[in-house]
Amino acid sequence: MAETSTTTNMSLILPTPGQRLGPTWASDLNAALTLIDAHDHTSGKGKTLGVSSFTIDADVNYNNSYALLNANFVSFDETATPATDFPAASKPSIIFSGGANGELYYNDGAGNQIPLTSGGVVNVPASAVAAKSFAANQTLVSVNPFNSTSTPALDESDGYQVYFTNYSTGAAVITLPDISGWGTAKKGRVFTFKDINGNAVTNPITIYAYGSTSTVSGTQTIDGIAAGGVTMVSAYESMSLIYIGDGTRWARI
Fold this sequence. Notes:
Blueprint: E1 4-6, E2 13-15, H1 22-38, H2 82-85, E3 94-98, E4 103-107, E5 113-115, E6 117-118, E7 121-122, H3 126-132, E8 136-137, H4 139-142, E9 162-165, E10 172-175, E11 190-195, E12 205-208, E13 221-222, E14 230-232, E15 238-243, E16 249-252
Parallel strand pairs: 8-9, 9-11, 10-12, 13-16
Antiparallel strand pairs: 1-2, 3-4, 4-5, 6-7, 11-15, 12-14, 15-16
């Protein structure tokens, strides 16, 4: 009979009882036990452990320095009730599937529970869409609201970005919305004005920042201009103004 045998999974050399003698037998056991102590189940160091070998019954802590890599996808349970199963205050900085339809949620570090999807599409608030929408205000095509006797301010909440101007009599005056309370939320909001019928050459179109007139300087400006505003004087001219994002300034682009 052979003095030793080799194991299947870790190739450990084990002494055969009654065949391997003395110190050699002890050396074999020492070498085998040392390999067992160091093994990590990689190839040649032990049997590969399958999914059935693991039962995770608590949060897995990656010690804040490791990431999940090379995962083809992550599957979420779709039965969570957002506010009760994963309250934002107790589970910050997590993504999970909430509700019977499995909408995607994110709990941020400030205790906000943010829905990322809604009804099969990315969840974008209607207010954000309105602020960035591109549509022509067709009302300004057929009527002449900004003429020598009318100086209304634009209503930003209408969501329009392009305003067609049609002036046949008198100089036109347009006043931009009050931006003092906009902060950075509407940074990048653009208004474009177009002399659609070529009347600006004889009926100039002047645009004022809120609180400013031809003689009065308000705290809001267009390219640093308060009193006097900016004027379109060429036929079919257009002008675009963008909100800078500081509550006081517009810029021509």
